[in-house]
Automatic annotation (TrEMBL):
Pfam families: Trp_oprn_chp
Transmembrane portions of the chain: 51-70, 77-99, 127-149
Region feature (Disordered): 162-196
Domain of life of the organism encoding this protein: Bacteria
Signal listed as a keyword: no
Keyword hit for Metal-binding: no
Listed name of the protein: Trp biosynthesis-associated membrane protein
Length: 196
C-alpha cells in the first residue's frame, strides 16, 4: 500500500509536528475573565502557558520523526514508540486545557500577577487545543503507518556513510585493491595528495 511507504509517513509526521509547534505558539488557548481587585478582568492564556511542555513535545516529535525515517530497524522502533508517547502527551495536555479551562486561566493569571495558586476565573477553550488534538491524531496515524510499513524501509544507505566507516582506520581501496589512506587522512597527517 502506497500510504505505508516512507514518503507519505514522513510528510504526515512533519505536518503533524509542525502543527503542534504552531499551536504551542502565541495563540490564545483559553480566554475568559479573572476576578481581580477592581472586578472581573479579561484574560487569556497562550499555548505555552495553558499547556506547558507542548513546544518541547513538538520538537521531540520532529527529532523522532527524522530518526524514525532515516535510521535502522531498532532505532526506528524506538523512535516510533517515542512518537506514540508524544502523541498521547499532546492529547493529554490539550484536553486538560479544554476540560479545566477556568483553572488553567486562573493559574496563568495568578502567575502573571505574581501570586501563587489560582485566581477565581471563568473561561473556555478556543479552537487551538482541538487543533493540537487533531495534529496529535495525525502524529499517531503516521506512527501506525511507520509501524505497519517500516519493515520494508531501509536506512539512509551506504552512500551517506563516510569512506572507510567499517573500522578500517579511514583507509580506502587503492588502484590494485590494497588498503591506502584516504586523501582526507593524508591531509590530516600533513601530506598533500595533490602533489602526487
Amino acid at each position: 500500500m502506497r500510504l505505508l511507504t516512507r514518503k507519505p509517513v514522513v510528510v504526515l509526521l512533519a505536518v503533524a509536528a509542525g502543527i503542534v509547534l504552531l499551536a504551542a505558539g502565541r495563540a490564545d488557548w483559553v480566554t475568559g475573565t479573572v476576578d481581580g481587585v477592581a472586578g472581573p478582568v479579561r484574560a487569556a492564556a497562550v499555548g505555552t502557558e495553558a499547556a506547558p511542555g507542548l513546544a518541547g513535545l513538538a520538537l521531540v516529535a520532529m527529532a523522532a520523526s527524522v530518526a524514525a525515517t532515516t535510521s535502522g530497524r531498532v532505532a526506528r522502533w524506538i523512535s516510533l514508540a517515542v512518537l506514540g508517547a508524544v502523541g498521547a502527551g499532546v492529547i493529554a495536555l490539550a484536553l486538560r486545557a479544554v476540560v479545566d479551562a477556568p483553572d488553567v486561566l486562573g493559574s496563568v493569571a495568578a502567575t502573571h500577577s505574581g501570586a501563587t495558586g489560582t485566581l477565581e476565573a471563568t473561561g473556555s477553550a478556543t479552537a487551538w487545543p482541538w487543533i493540537a488534538v487533531v495534529a496529535a491524531g495525525l502524529l499517531l496515524l503516521a506512527c501506525v503507518g511507520g509501524i505497519l510499513g517500516g519493515r520494508r524501509w531501509g536506512g539512509l544507505g551506504r552512500r551517506y556513510e563516510r569512506p572507510g566507516g567499517d573500522g578500517d582506520g579511514g583507509q580506502v581501496g587503492g588502484a590494485r585493491g590494497e588498503r591506502v589512506d584516504s586523501d582526507w587522512d593524508r591531509v590530516t597527517l600533513g601530506d598533500d595528495p595533490s602533489v602526487d
